[in-house]
Amino acid sequence: MTSPNTRQCLLTSTVIGGVAALTAFAAQPAAAMVQDEPTSVSEIVVTGSRIVRKDYNSTSPIVTVGQEDLQATGSVTVEGLMNDMPQFMPGNSHGSVNPGNGGQANLNLRGLGSNRTLVLMNGRRIVPSNADGTVDVNLIPAALIKNVEVISGGASATYGSDALAGVANFILNDSFSGVQIDAQYGQTERGDGTTESFTVTVGGNLDDGRGNAVLSIGRSTRSAIMSDARGFSRISGRNSVSPLGVTTFDSTNLPSQAFINSYLNCANCVTPTGEFGYNTDGSLFSHVGAYNFKSPGGAEWDAYHEPGVAWAYNTGATGMLSIPLERWNAFSAVRYNLTDSMELYGNVLYTQYSSDVILAPTPMPGPSPTYGFRVPTTNPFISADLRAFLDARPDPTASFGLNKRFNAIGGRLAEDSTTVYQVTTGVRGDLPFGDWRYDVSAQYGRVDNQTQQSGNVSRSAVQRLLDDPTGGASLCEGGFNPFGLTQLSQSCINYINRNSKNATLSEQSVVEATLQGGLFQLPAGEVRVAVGAQYREDTFAFRPDAGLSQSNPIVDHLGADGLPDGGKIGGVEVAGFNPVQPLTGSTNSTEVFIEALIPVLADKPFVQSLDLNLGYRYADYSTVGGVSAYKADIDWAVVDGLRVRGGVQRAVRAPSIGELFGNRDISSPQIGSPVNAAGQAVYGGDPCDIRGAYRNGPDAAKVRDLCIAQGLSAAAVDSYVFNSTQIQGFVGGNRNLKEETADTWTLGFVYRPQLENPLFSRLSTSLDYYSIEITDVVGTITAANQLQGCFNATGVTNTSYDVNNGYCQLFRRDSMTGNVVDSLGLQQNLATLKTSGVDLQVDWGFDLVDAGMPDWGALNLNFVVGWMDAWQRQDAAGGPFNERAGTIDSTNGFTFPEWKFLTSVNYSKGPYGVGLRWRRVGEMDIYRTDNKLDAINYFDLLGTWEVNERVVLRAGVNNLTDQDPQTWSPGIQANTDPSTYDILGRRYFVGLTAKF
């Protein structure tokens, strides 16, 4: 870990640069402050290579977007633009509420996972914000971004671990002269989702041009939107855990069917194992069919109670749709030529932001001896109707299970506050021989996060109230009546409510040295090489509130294999937000690398030049030992304007701190619903649910037998209903993990026609094929995939419907209710993940007069399209590959459109400009169903006006047609995927950029 003194030196040396920027500004003549510092284009370095060379072209598939593309989104953060790009699948974004990530925004290149997407800033790593090594792009100051370069395929030979899917390199303007003010305001058509940003940047040259310093400070905000503010999400988050209270009687002690038929006045209208809720008058109703339901009134209660359809509570009426954000950014950079061959440089990035998330009030699931409550039959609040149910059981004195959602306490609120700083300092320059140059640098980054949670509930406190002979009146004023709409006194709220505070600290230190230059001449040109060494250390510490890791003595013990062994250990004391355990860990690596650019042929027929780019990196990790990465790429200039590029790369990713050292935490994984919104049976939810496709398909009898073999009683199996979309599970790390290995193949061409006709002088086209295959994939088999694998959803994972099948051993059923519990999500080296496809980018600009029209201005067109040929995952060696290309399912972030477009047409005439942007997400199959989602199109309009040489105004409308998102499943957040589809609707923004 970097010492405090070292950190202080790094910070001090670079903050001086910010002060120097102000000094330089004060000393500059006014005329010199209008334009940015000109950037030399004689020698450049492109993302994906360490070698600087004149007129260098990327040998990897690369897509570049600029500041104007970011401004066209109207967003104050960058994830909106990145998720619009065809190369990216949805990651965490402003709409990722549940599951969420504390307001962070993560990038997911090629859908291979944000932990396999390396995010760089000016070619250097950014300190991770999570235990899995992912970077929160919210910390990047949007106003300073010059462009973003995205390359696909492994880049481990160049940058090290994490770059299996590729690299997103955010290039900031760190060489600026003058003063620039940028301001923007936006709001949705419905008057919510307000965004504001304001940034001031000052910079100037030092000591007659021997250096430059820049300082930028900005603030941006985004207001929250609640789910009930949009029609598509107002009814969402279907859940069986109700504020009315829910009882599911033990399968071994059921009320008689005759009694239930008589009470509900129907013949076999509901089964004994169905869930029963409590009306406000003390009577009971059945969740299955909603028989005898008496609504208290309101969207929460009336959304899901049509006769014949299972009643459920509507959590969408109380949850959040879009997460708010308040962010301060500061960036300072300085460079100074100490001598003609030595330049000192440094920069500081500082970000502080806060974000809040509101979820529906705490549900306490059950009933089971592991997770739910047990109510004694002596409880004084038991109504006459409930007493009749209890007396209709074989053992009328036995306790019974209870679920409860605690609306009386209010929603679950998580307030995140995050502070990030990263300091880089170094020296670079020319060596006294040839054109060799050196660069020695050190950087330190730190992320501090504090999360305050309210709305949690103490399990033991609630159980004490239920067990108390007075119904809890001896413990708090009025006691606790769990049956029906509960009104709690403030003293009872204080008795069961638990607030918590969690802290996270992430640190990264990197020391690196590189040399590069010309080695010797070949007939086709000069061989150039880059060599270097790097030391990197990552540490992570998560310290949860004591209450979130505190245990009580009712959870089944898990053996060495991660499965219940029959014993008991403490369970989590607090419910609400997922309980978590402390996590600490560190990793480090020592790495050496070499890259060579070898001219093979030149000036031959159909070979203007043929260059070979070779790279190799050896890394010694403290966790997995030595690993190697390499690349071999070609750059072939065929004729004027036509280049062919491609190659092969071997990339590696060492397991992250969270994957290695994560403690076993309770989770609430999504499994979807057995029926869709139209009530049709689908392959989702619990396969034993009598409403789903498993129990109504060709193998229904085998499914039934497997349900019984897992512990669902024969008396309950033909009436079993599981009316929630989530189950209880465990997640955790594994210190025995080994590295992932990826092989990438790419082949493409770039065409820039060298024609005298000015109509085509600014035309550029690239077409690239990619194929990425990752083996020993680190991950977990999701709860949904566990159930699908066990119950043979694909027809190949468990053809004998054997209870001892590997998928079936990853979860168990509660002995009393038969509900799925303890889904095991430990990190493992699974089998293979692979994807392939094609990217096309076309850029074309021309003056209208060159097209034979009057001189009315100029047009610029940009067209980026991604075609996903395949996206396949194999969970076990020799097992089947699940094809996901062109599909979407009920888990946020598992969206794989086969086609995705991002197109813009911009017209300019003098100081005026107008642009139309077209975003298209292609048609997708809803995974494991016969249903489809149609393609969806979004249009954005942007106008600009250069008032004078100093001031530019802009205004825009996003989602011009007010297109609602595609909705398809009651089992996911807001009935849609909020990162793939636009959840805000039509919105407007205005902005200003002024330079002085």
Automatic annotation (TrEMBL):
Subcellular location: Cell outer membrane
Residue ranges that the Swiss-Prot or TrEMBL entry lists as coiled coil: none
Chief location bin: membrane
Keyword Transmembrane belongs to the record: yes
Record-linked InterPro entries: Beta-barrel_TonB, Beta-barrel_TonB_sf, Plug_dom, Plug_dom_sf, TAT_signal, TonB-dep_rcpt-like
Ranges for domain TonB-dependent receptor plug: 57-167
One Pfam family recorded for the sequence: Plug
Membrane-protein topology: Multi-pass membrane protein
TonB-dependent receptor-like beta-barrel domain sequence ranges: 397-960
Signal peptide: 1-26
Key words, A-Z: Cell outer membrane, Membrane, Receptor, Signal, TonB box, Transmembrane, Transmembrane beta strand, Transport
Claim: Membrane is one of the keywords in the record: yes
Protein family (similarity comment): Belongs to the TonB-dependent receptor family.
UniProt protein name: TonB-dependent receptor
Organism: Brevundimonas olei
